[in-house]
Amino acid sequence: MYHKYIKVTIAFFALFAVSCSDDFLDRYPTDSLNESNFWHNENELKQYANMLYSNFTGHSTGTNLSPIISGDNQSDNMVPLNFDLIAAGKNIVPTTSAGTSWNWALIRSCNYFLARYNQTPISQELKDRYAGEIRFFKVWDYFNKVKDYGDLPWLSKDLNTNSPELFAPRDSRTLVMDSILNTINMAIVNLPAKSVSEPGRINKDVALILKARLCLFEGTFRKYHGIAGGEKFLQEALSASDQLISEGHYQLHSTGNTATDYSALFNSLDLSTNKEVLLYKAYETGLLGNATLYAVQLNNFNTSASKSLVESYLCKDGKPVSQSSLYSGDDSIQVEMSNRDPRLTQTIVFPGKAMQTGFGAPAIPGSGYSGIGPVPTGYQIQKFWMNDQTEYVRIQNGIMDAPLYRYAEVLLINAEANAELGKASQDVINKTINLLRKRAGMPDMVIGNLVKDVKSDFPEIPVLLDEIRRERRVELAIEGMRFDDLLRWKAAKLLNKTVLGMKFVQKQYPKAVVGSSIFINNQGYILPYGKSLPNGRTFDESKNYFLPLPLDELALNKNLTQNPGWK
């Protein structure tokens, strides 16, 4: 189990705690960690690596809300009660780096280890194994920073107060991403195979899926943002995902029950035997708990799905709503959700079902049922919910496990990379997309039968790539990946489309007062931001693809320049 291998005592954590100062590289004293009192044995290397596993937030802890679920609030998948500032284009330049991702503590921790671990008197194989874990975290953190800021300083060593790198300009995205690729390749070489790895620790396969994810991001980002070198990264994404598929260590979770197999990945109290999960964060009574089931049932997230997400689900005949004879329209949410991909009702509550049993309809502003947070669009989230009263009453001590990397993403990466490289044959689709569809109980995708959806968000791309993107959106909905997808496809302009909820039916919500507790457009669809954003979201593509650097960092280092559009 995960916690058994990453559990760190308070005393040990305090010893290695890294500062979160506002200084450029979050410097911290190292006199308690030096060659004379550390680097003696394997256990010390393991303990150092263990500390870094806390960076996997999973479902968070205690009463804190799960960042996995709330991650899609910054996208066109989810509609929180209070609009997301970045998605709305209303974030501003921060005055300080505190609370931002321009924080270098984790990178420094990794570099400190990598500069010293070789002095430990154990076998080189063991030393390199832990160095592989450390390199994984260095890549993981750098990748997140590249997505946020683009160009970055590439740091290959831990710095001190006299290091000239403290006042250097940022390195190019090209240099940083090439360095990231080299670093993850080194990690893959030195990490143990799944078969000999300790359960819950990063192994070769976990590094491979991170590599596949970051290479797909970079390859498509470069292609659609007009940056050279994208094909190299797409080939690397394809190679890494091919290896994971061909080695056969994983398979999609399936018992043959299309009504529960998908949802079972997200409402499990124990993912240790799930063959789809490459890495997860485990929770266990008395050791680590979360409030995810409790929060989902009460909608403490105060969020909801968008009509855009709901419309992306195919009908049961495998056709989009614009083409299928099974689609009866959206004059009510009940009609709209009928005859659709079974993943829809395992992601969004069908009125009166699941946690709504006895209430009949989703909560919306002005008509929510007692004790339930508002559902701005009317589409209430069901993913990550289970009918388990024991888990519910645990509240902040819940033990629902959090999947971090799963095999379905490998299949989606493989399909998309193949399509971007012009290699997506029917055989490729059968081994990737159609496995996902079979698990869901949906018809196969047949390339020759595809017809471009007239309501597609991507009218300019080939129909095959369009449908692969749809499959990705549906399969990974509410897992915090959609915003990254919009960034890499240069498609964040979709955030500026009018945010809609379900068709409002007054008789289902007799207490709702249109124009007061709820706003609707001329077609009768809920406008969740009708009052708070009367002019809609305004994501500015000239600047909002990157975050602004904090002002205090620019003041400390005059060689840093602000990202375009943020001056």
Q: Which structural traits does this protein have?
A:
two-stranded antiparallel ribbon, mainly alpha, 20 helices, 567 residues, 35% helix, disordered N terminus, globular
What is the count of DSSP helices, taking H or I runs of 4+ residues?
20
Helix and strand pattern? HHHHHHHHHEHHHHHEHHHHHH
User: Could you give the count of β-strands?
Assistant: 2
Task: Output mean pLDDT.
Answer: 92
Low-confidence stretches: 1-31
Q: Specify the overall morphology.
A: globular
Report the end-to-end length measured between terminal Cα atoms.
48 Å
| Rg of Cα set | 24 Å
Class by helix and strand content? mainly alpha
Strand arrangement, largest sheet? 1-2
Estimate the helix proportion, in percent: 25-40%
Portion in strands: under 5%
Tell me the major beta sheet. 2 strands, antiparallel
Quick overview:
With 567 residues, the chain is mainly α.
Task: Give the SSE layout.
Blueprint: H1 2-6, H2 10-16, H3 42-52, H4 67-70, H5 105-114, H6 124-149, H7 173-190, H8 204-225, H9 230-247, E1 277-281, H10 292-297, H11 307-312, H12 333-336, H13 342-345, H14 389-394, E2 402-406, H15 407-420, H16 426-431, H17 433-440, H18 463-475, H19 482-488, H20 551-556
Antiparallel strand pairs: 1-2
Helix pairs in contact: 3-6, 5-6, 6-7, 7-8, 8-9, 8-15, 8-19, 9-15, 15-18
Polypeptide structure, described:
- The chain has helices at residues 2-6, 10-16, 42-52, 67-70, 105-114, 124-149, 173-190, 204-225, 230-247, 292-297, 307-312, 333-336, 342-345, 389-394, 407-420, 426-431, 433-440, 463-475, 482-488, 551-556; strands at 277-281, 402-406.
- With 567 residues, the chain is mostly helical.
- Helix 8 (204-225) crosses helix 19 (482-488).
- It is globular.
- Residues 1-31 have low confidence and may be disordered.
